[in-house]
Design goal:
Number of strands: 0
Structural class: mainly alpha
Low-confidence stretches: none
Radius of gyration: 12 Å
Largest sheet: none
Shape: globular
Strand content: under 5%
Helix content: over 70%
Length: 86
C-alpha cells in the first residue's frame, strides 16, 4: 500500500488515507474486514506517534470502540493487537 511506504516520511498524508479506508470498513462485518481494519488502525497509531499526536489516536480509538462495541470479534482482535483504547 502506498500509504505504508509514505508513512515514515509523510505521516500526515498516510494518516488521511488510513482514516478514509478505515471509515469505509467500519460499516462492514466479518473477520476479513475486521483484520483489514485492525491493520489500518495499527498504521493510524504509527502515524499519530510520528506526528506527536498520540492523544488524538486515543480519542479516535475510544470513539471507534464505542461505535463498534457490538462487533465482539473486532473488539477481541483489537485487544489482541494492543488497541484497547487506553
Amino acid at each position: 500500500m502506498v500509504s505504508d511506504r509514505s508513512r515514515p516520511t509523510r505521516p500526515e498524508d498516510a494518516l488521511a488515507v488510513y482514516l478514509r479506508l478505515a471509515a469505509r470498513l467500519t460499516g462492514e462485518t466479518g473477520n476479513p474486514a475486521y483484520e483489514q481494519l485492525v491493520s489500518l488502525l495499527l498504521g493510524i497509531r504509527d502515524c499519530h506517534r510520528r506526528l506527536g499526536t498520540p492523544d488524538d489516536f486515543t480519542a479516535y480509538l475510544t470513539d471507534l470502540r464505542a461505535a463498534q462495541k457490538r462487533k465482539r470479534n473486532l473488539m477481541r482482535l483489537m485487544g489482541d493487537h494492543g488497541l484497547s483504547g487506553a
